[in-house]
Amino acid sequence: MNIDFYAAFVIGLMGAGHCLGMCGGVAAALTMGMPQQQQTNRWHYLVMYNLGRLLSYAIAGGIIGGAFAGVASLSGSSYALISLRLFAALMMIVLALYLGQWWQGLVKLEKAGQHVWKHIAPKANAFLPLRSPFAALPFGILWGWLPCGLVYSTLSWAAVSGSVLGGSSIMFAFGLGTLPAMLFVGGLAAQLKQLLNNLYFKRANALLLLAYGIHTGYIAIKQIM
Predict the structure, then answer these.
(1) For this UniProt entry, which segments traverse the membrane (predicted)?
(2) Which of 102, 117, 153, 178 has its CA 20 to 30 A from that of 147?
């Protein structure tokens, strides 16, 4: 596993506060409509829902990674992937500024994704109320396409991974990072969210990501020169 895998995991973990704001309500609400006698099985629903999310991330990463690897291969030039890596570095920097609350430009990407989401949301909501844990799997797969700046930024890394498997693994690692907060929706999640939303904690991690983004950009520029 390369450093991008671990970095993607850390981004998922750091961005868990953001994920709880966007998807935490869904994770909590999906168990509310189930029959009373099934309330003890809420973990089954949460696990299947989050498995669906991770599958959608992995699928998106594989598609992006494979597509850009194919384009680079057909072009017969390394400049295509180098340019993409430079773009990925820029997205890392933008993401670091967003997580550190220095600049909110990433929100514009989420707004752009709303055009696609408005067609997916009705299909996802058609599964509610969930009647079985298995129904939570396709529900989670569809909700995995919710417009999210963190997802879009990590997808830029998947694009320069060089393969379908590389892109899938990067996005899957990102999803794994979001799991602790998303699984423990409730009191524990509230405590975790308080830590993850601590400004000093966020900015310390954002600075690490910023340094990694700058380093990645430097390597890409060095390859061009």
Answers:
(1) 6-33, 54-73, 79-99, 134-158, 170-192, 204-221
(2) 102
Rounded to 5°, the CA angle 61-126-176 comes to 30
> Rounded to an integer, what distance in angstroms lies between the CA atom of residue 33 and that of residue 129?
5
Domain extent for 136 = 3-224
With tokens 């750091």, the residue in question is 14
User: CB of 67 within 8 A of CB of 80?
Assistant: no
Of 6-10, 34-38, 115-119, the poorest mean pLDDT is in 34-38
Pick from 211, 205, 193: nearest CA to 24: 193
Contact 81, 150 (CB under 8 A): no
What's the first-to-final CA gap in the chain, in angstroms? 28
Question: pLDDT tens for residues 78-133?
Answer: 677 788 888 888 988 988 898 888 988 888 877 777 778 888 888 888 887 777 88
Torsion (CA) 48, 46, 35, 21 in degrees, nearest 10: -130
Say how far apart CA 173 and CA 166 lie, in whole Å: 11
The DSSP code for 141 is: H
What is the domain count for the chain?
Answer: 1
How many helices (H) and strands (E) in the chain? 11, 0
Task: Give the residue among 26, 55, 31, 24 at the shortest CA–CA distance from 131.
Answer: 31
DSSP state of 144: T
